[in-house]
Amino acid sequence: MSSRRSSRSRHSGGSSRTISEDQINDLVSKLQDLLPDLPNRSSDKVSATRVLQDTCNYIRGLHREVDDLSERLSELLANSDSAQAALIRSLLMQ
Amino acid sequence: MASMLMKNPVTSSDRSIIARRKKKKTNLSSKDQNENTIINHNNNNNNNSRDSTNEWKSQAQQQVYSSKLLKALHHAQTSAPAPKGGQAVREVADRVLAATAKGRSKWSRAILTNRLKLKFMKKQSKRQSVARSKPSRLTKKPRAGIMLKLRTKSLPAFQKKARVLSRIVPGCQKQPLPVVLEEATDYIAALEMQVRAMSALADLLSGASSTS
């Protein structure tokens, strides 16, 4: 149970509480699968740090998209007559 | 146009039944996929996360979200017509997204409780909420040594990114790393669905306003 980086690790007893690296890697790879693949990257060599960074950027990008869409929706909904007709129409089409 | 309007009640009930059937089918098919894939020995959570990420991709879930969103927007518009900026729409969309998650994920519960907290705090005092939120943003100390138990993943860059990610995903700020990663996977799937549904809705509304 000797730690590789003695400066960083704390009480490493109590194995039920330590989080295994395999578990982390598994979760990170699952996360990577969700991210849109960029063509420059080969899937084997990506470090977990890079995956986390890409995840943060992607979520921020999605937030921005949602903000833009909600701006657009608010402008469109400002006109209430067309909105009601659109409501009915969209419920039919979907 | 008039004929479409008259068919409205019939088709809406049919559609809801079809949507419910589709939802049951997608649940069953995604569960089959889970049994076939290699499952990690510890977690039931892996099953749940794959199931839920597939559900967010399903058309039925998007329909559920779109109809709820329309109703909520319509309700918000009729009840509080004054400030209908993009921020208000965003809040409604997030709330409906959290409601669609049906409380299965931490971030959805966090969104819903944060709304309640904000409403509550606004009535009390604005200064208290600002004072409380500031220290959580400024301190960058690791939380309670849970993250430090990761031996090889204790690179400062990795920890930093993990902390940033935990701040971005709602409700995950003090959570240990595997929880954050799991919540992030579900959150990304949900956000993608939200973008798809809202853009479809915006296209419909813009198409409607151009023809009317």
SSE topology:
The complex is a heterodimer of chains A (94) and B (212).
Chain A (H helix, E strand, L loop, with lengths): L20 H14 L13 H30 L2 H14 L1
Helix pairs in contact in A: 1-2
Chain B lengths: L1 H5 L1 H29 L8 H13 L1 H21 L6 H15 L5 H19 L1 H13 L17 H13 L8 H35 L1
Helix pairs in contact in B: 2-3, 2-4, 3-9, 4-5, 4-9, 5-6
How much strand of chain A? under 5%
Number of strands of chain B: 0
Distance separating the two termini of chain A:
58 Å
Strand content of chain B: under 5%
Chain pair sharing the greatest interface:
A-B, 58 and 72 residues
Point out poorly predicted stretches of chain B.
25-45, 133-149
Number of helical segments with 4 or more residues of chain A: 3
What proportion of the residues of chain A is helical, as a percent range? 55-70%
Continuous helix count of chain B: 9
Quaternary state of this entry equals heterodimer
Please state the average pLDDT score of chain A. Answer: 71
Order of helices and strands of chain A: HHH
Given helix and strand content, the structural type of chain B is mainly alpha
Query: Strand pairing plus helix content of chain A: what structural class?
Result: mainly alpha
Main sheet record of chain A: none
What does this structure look like?
The complex is a heterodimer of chains A (94) and B (212). With 94 residues, chain A is mainly α. In chain A, 62% of the residues lie in helices and 0% in strands. Chain A is built from 3 helices and no strands. Helices cover 77% and strands 0% of the residues of chain B. Chain B has helices at 2-6, 8-36, 45-57, 59-79, 86-100, 106-124, 126-138, 156-168, 177-211.
